[in-house]
Specification:
Keywords: ATP-binding, Nucleotide-binding, Plant defense, Repeat. One of its GO terms (molecular function) is ATP binding. The protein contains 28 helices and 39 strands. By secondary structure, the protein is an alpha/beta fold. Among the domains are: 124 residues; 146 residues, P-loop containing nucleotide triphosphate hydrolases (Rossmann fold), CATH 3.40.50.300; 86 residues, Orthogonal Bundle (Helicase, Ruva Protein, domain 3), CATH 1.10.8; 84 residues, Arc Repressor Mutant, subunit A (Orthogonal Bundle), CATH 1.10.10.10; 163 residues, Leucine-rich repeat, LRR (right-handed beta-alpha superhelix) (Alpha-Beta Horseshoe), CATH 3.80.10. The strands form 8 sheets. The chain has a 20-stranded parallel sheet. A 5-stranded parallel sheet has the order 4-5-6-3-7, with helices on both faces. The longest helix has 24 residues. It is globular. It starts with a helix and ends with a strand. Bound molecules: 2-acetamido-2-deoxy-beta-D-glucopyranose (4 copies). One 2-acetamido-2-deoxy-beta-D-glucopyranose (NAG) binds next to loops.
Length: 962
């Protein structure tokens, strides 16, 4: 689960938060925490499914697939929620926003899970009479093998089970299925513990992992024996089943501290291994996993290559499948590499090729799978793509690699054509990634934004690739001995370990080492001065997320270094002169602790990527940029109070594509935006003046502008670029209305708008002069602390409201706009058909959400029929602290909002009638599954259209205590 969480964090760091960026902020994250807690409770209530299931499953009936999947999802999401809630109390400002977003994501996922949790059709189905027909889900699972393992797990004869078979035959998949079954049935064991054992075996890490999976923690800084005793004691407290996946080496249970399972204690151990002697050594009863039958193999191949697309002569492709020797992994990978091939000659050639290699290897050896996989690798036919593939093996086994991170790494390693623009490089990287995925050398991970490598494929990559030392995420506390750093090493990955220090005189001799990854060793605070002295060939050095306080001097001489990554090195204060790093193309110091710009940067004439977004950095001396004519990416902290860059300074950077900074003032901004230099940027975040408290400092930029304390009232006072996507207006005193800003007419891409603390704004748009095309395009509108705002859209004095105003608006958020009485006049409603979320908080005079222009009485007095209003996409309506709110829509009207899922009404004492109905009137919206009311008494006084509504909605009701 920990890895899962990391991946989510990674994904969030990278995937630009699409919508909602404002609301997922600093302030709202508390609210999300509350929502999470609420939903967790709802979820737990639904978990009686598990008990029901246990009662219904018997020898003839098995759980439905969807039920099994659902329960697994529940387990996952629960762990996730716990994880987020645990982190909440003491996170920093920036992580809050991040956590908020993560929470938001979980909430969405939760909704989906809750939605799928209604098994009114029953939980079980009849078991098929005979063995299952060969389906893809069961592809690697031989039914008899699973039966055997299940038998051993339920019986008393066998305590230690060894699932043995060659690599790629499907051992892990079988055990994953059994693991999931065990989780569900919870009949015999209190704890089901899964640990992937990496090789070489690391006792310390194995101990930690086992403890972690039991929700326990072993003491650190103890010797292994003591920890073994401690672990043994922990394990003695529960009836466990321990699954150790992929064991390569013999070891003694006692050395690790694994309590030996016996008939008396009822515990069991299952290991999977490619080595029969390991199973024997541990005294396991062996269950052999054999390759697929001929027919299964053919089916699997057809499925993978897509039977509709297969245009090869039958004789040839069947022969090819035969060469795969029933190894599912080989079949999948080879099918992947032949996808889309239509030329008969090519097929025949491929077959010959494959046959040729296999003849040359001994049957039954480890090479059996190796040669078959290598066949696919060779078919990539492009040495660049092959190198990209090989570099994936630098990550830990079973690691889910975020796609964008991987592409960035390829660029940093110089594996992608270096001359083009950054954008071209990113596109190229994504293309290569697709190619690798299509050929099944990389698999999809659990997240859409990530990929992973099968461990057998990874073994191959490590064998084929350059000489490497990969000990990623293995719990190392010490750096490998100097002896392990051999002269022929080209790549070293020690990422995400617990390495805390490096011996003072260590100076590994690795003259051809090109890549060194030390990132994520957060306890590493010092690197000896001479450490890099004999690494003259180093090109990529990643020290991100380490605790280093200074960079060693030997770094100054790495003349071939192209990439130096120091992101999140928050303790980093001292950096020696970098002037000699002439080859450097990328220097990334995002969130590093430095307060002055490292000396010598101005000499780095090849620099293409410079991230100096360091919160403590006070200034950027002006002459620095002068020599950096190759820069494509330049980012500094746009929220700094002292660090500003003028448009003039960057104009010399002819290749700039991404630019993030605070500009000198509004005039400088206007001049710059008008310049041709600006037009070439593909991403920017430009700030003038102060930013709002929860301004979104996304890692992944799009096109954002924030104007703080600027005079943007009059005509032409501000020049906005046509392609701006996000606009923040903060404390601009003279700003009266969007209709006053001439340049808004042209901003066809503007999606997100945020206005905060502007004293004079009276209406967002004035329909008499609706100069703003933005009212047709904007998707999110957030209005915060606008004391004089009285209407969102002023329709007074116009004949007919144009029908499509706000027709793209999805999210509307308003807070502390105390003069607004009516949120939307009815005339606007026809446009609001895409609105999904309305939040209104702390508006002292708000009386109605939707209402007639003019006095309510004039319209209702003679109305005889009910008027119907529709907001077909509304999913969330949240009203909080609106002391004068009387109506959601006019007195006799009803509002049809069948998509509504969440309704929150807090501290709205005058609200009586809830006119919300679903498509089946007068029932409440069918999707409504979360209602939050405060104070509790309010619920009693609320009237729904449907007299029965309160009963129907009871299960969705929640009264917060906070
Ligand atoms: C579950 O589904 C059934 C039929 O689809 C429906 O009648 C019932 O109201 C649903 N229950 C819940 C709690 O959604
Ligand atoms: C460097 O490390 C950081 C932090 O762990 C990571 O996000 C980044 O992807 C790494 N980059 C490369 C090229 O290894
Ligand atoms: C550094 O690069 C230069 C030129 O690219 C090359 O001649 C030299 O051998 C490299 N040094 C090492 C130690 O690899
Ligand atoms: C630009 O680089 C040259 C040498 O390449 C150096 O002499 C000069 O001082 C640099 N300019 C600045 C402004 O640092």
């Amino acid at each position: 689960m920990a890895e899962l969480a990391t991946v989510i964090l990674e994904v969030i760091k990278w995937v630009a938060p699409p919508a909602r960026s404002y609301v997922d902020n600093h302030r709202n994250f508390k609210k999300y925490a509350k929502v999470l807690r609420k939903k967790l409770r709802i979820l737990e209530a639904k978990e009686d499914v598990k008990t029901r299931l246990q009662g219904e499953v018997c020898s003839e009936k098995q759980a439905k697939n969807e039920v099994v999947v659902w329960l697994q999802d529940v387990e996952k999401i629960k762990a996730e929620i716990q994880d987020v809630l645990k982190e909440l109390p003491d996170v920093s400002y920036f992580s809050r926003a991040r956590l908020g977003k993560r929470a938001r994501k979980i909430i969405v996922e939760l909704d989906d899970i809750l939605g799928r949790g209604n098994f009114s059709e029953g939980l079980v189905v009849n078991k098929p009479a005979t063995a299952l027909p060969f389906g893809v889900e069961n592809l690697e699972g031989e039914v008899s093998v699973k039966e055997k393992i299940r038998g051993y797990l339920t019986g008393n004869e066998v305590q230690m089970i060894g699932v043995w078979g060659i690599g790629g035959v499907g051992k892990t998949t079988i055990m994953k299925q059994i693991h999931d079954e065990l989780l569900l049935m919870k009949s015999r064991f209190d704890k089901v513990i899964w640990v992937t054992v990496s090789h070489p075996l690391n006792v310390g890490r194995l101990q930690d992992e086992i403890a972690k999976r039991m929700n326990e923690r072993l003491r650190e800084n103890e010797d292994e024996q003591r920890r073994a005793l401690e672990l043994k004691e922990m394990m003695g407290r529960v009836k466990y089943v321990l699954i150790l996946d992929d064991v390569w080496q013999r070891f003694r249970l006692e050395d690790v501290g694994i309590l030996r399972p016996t008939v008396e204690n009822g515990c069991k151990i299952v290991i999977t291994s490619r080595k029969v002697d390991v199973c024997n050594f541990l005294g396991c009863e062996i269950v052999k996993v054999s390759p697929l039958s001929k027919e299964e193999s053919l089916n699997l191949f057809l499925h993978e290559v897509g039977s509709d697309n297969l245009q090869a002569p039958e004789g040839i492709w069947k022969a090819m499948v035969e060469e795969c020797a029933g190894l599912p992994l080989a079949i999948v990978v080879i099918a992947g590499s032949m996808k889309g091939v239509i030329d008969v000659h090519e097929w025949r050639h491929a077959l010959n090729e494959l046959r040729g290699r296999i003849r040359a290897t001994a049957e039954g050896s480890e090479d059996e799978i190796f040669e078959r996989l290598k066949f696919s690798y060779d078919r990539l036919q492009d040495s660049n793509i092959q190198s990209c593939f090989l570099s994936c093996s630098l990550y830990a086994e079973d690691y889910e690699i975020v796609r964008d991170v991987l592409v960035e790494q390829w660029i940093d390693e110089g594996l992608i054509e270096q001359s083009g623009s950054r954008r071209a490089k990113l596109d190229k990287g994504q293309t290569i990634l697709n190619r690798l995925e299509n050929s099944c050398l990389l698999e999809n991970a659990r997240f859409a934004g990530a990929v992973k490598m099968h461990d057998v494929v990874r073994d191959m990559a490590l064998r084929l690739g350059p000489q490497s030392m990969v000990k990623a995420r293995m719990g190392l506390r010490e750096i490998p001995d100097e002896d392990d750093w051999t002269e022929n090493l080209e790549k070293v990955s020690l990422m995400e370990n617990e390495i805390s220090d490096i011996p003072p005189n260590m100076c590994p001799n690795c003259p051809i080492l090109t890549t060194l990854m030390l990132q994520g060793n957060s306890k590493l605070t010092q690197i000896p001065d001479c450490f890099f002295a004999n690494m003259q060939g180093l090109k990529l050095l990643n020290l991100s997320e380490t605790g280093i306080e200074s960079l060693p001097h030997s770094i100054c001489n790495l003349e071939n270094l192209t990439t130096l990554l120091l992101c999140y090195c928050e303790q980093l204060k001292h950096v020696p002169c970098l002037a000699k790093l002439k080859a450097l193309k990328k220097l990334d110091m995002f969130k590093a602790g430095i307060d002055v710009v490292p000396e010598g940067i101005d000499m780095l004439v090849n620099l293409q990527y410079l991230d100096l977004l360091c919160p403590e950095l006070v200034e950027l001396p002006t002459q620095i940029l002068g020599n950096l004519s190759q820069l494509q990416h330049l980012t500094v902290d746009p929220c700094s109070t002292t660090l500003k860059i003028t448009g003039e300074e960057v104009r010399g950077l002819k290749k700039l594509e991404t630019f993030q900074a605070q500009l000198y003032d509004l005039q400088d901004f206007n001049n710059y935006v008008k310049s041709n230099h600006f037009k070439r940027l593909s991403n920017y975040q430009l700030v003038v003046g102060q930013v709002a408290e929860y301004f979104n400092l996304a890692g992944h930029l799009s096109k954002e502008i924030s104007l703080g304390e600027c005079e943007i009232g009059g005509e032409d006072s501000v020049v906005l670029p046509d392609d701006v996507k996000e606009l923040w207006i903060y404390r601009c005193r003279k700003f009266r209305s969007f209709s006053d800003i001439y340049f808004l007419q042209k901003t066809t891409e503007l999606r997100d708008c945020f206005v905060s603390e502007c004293e004079e704004i009276g209406c967002v748009v004035d329909m008499v002069t609706p100069s703003s095309s933005f009212i047709y395009n904007v998707e999110q509108l957030c209005l915060d602390k606008l004391p004089n705002l009285s209407v969102v859209a002023n329709v007074e004095g116009i004949e007919a409201t144009p029908p499509h105003i706000f027709s793209n608006l999805r999210l509307f958020w308003m807070r502390e706009c105390s003069r607004v009485k009516r949120l939307f006049p009815i005339e606007l409603l026809q446009g609001l058909q895409n609105l999904e979320e309305i939040t209104v908080e702390d508006c002292q005079q708000m009386e109605e959400i939707i209402g007639w222009e003019g006095e309510e009485e004039n319209h209702t007095a003679n109305a005889t029929t009910t008027t119907t209003f529709t907001l077909p996409k509304l999913t969330e309506l949240s009203l909080e602290n609106l002391p004068e709110l009387k109506r959601i829509c006019p007195t006799r009207g009803v509002m049809v909002c069948d998509s509504l899922q969440e309704l929150e009404i807090k501290k709205c004492p005058k609200l009586k009638r809830i006119p919300l109905v679903g498509n089946v009137r007068p029932s409440p919206p069918a999707a409504l599954k979360m209602i939050t009311i405060k104070p509790k008494e309010l619920w009693e006084s609320l009237e729904w259209e449907d007299p029965n509504a309160k009963n129907v909605l009871q299960p969705s009701l929640h009264f917060p205590t906070y």
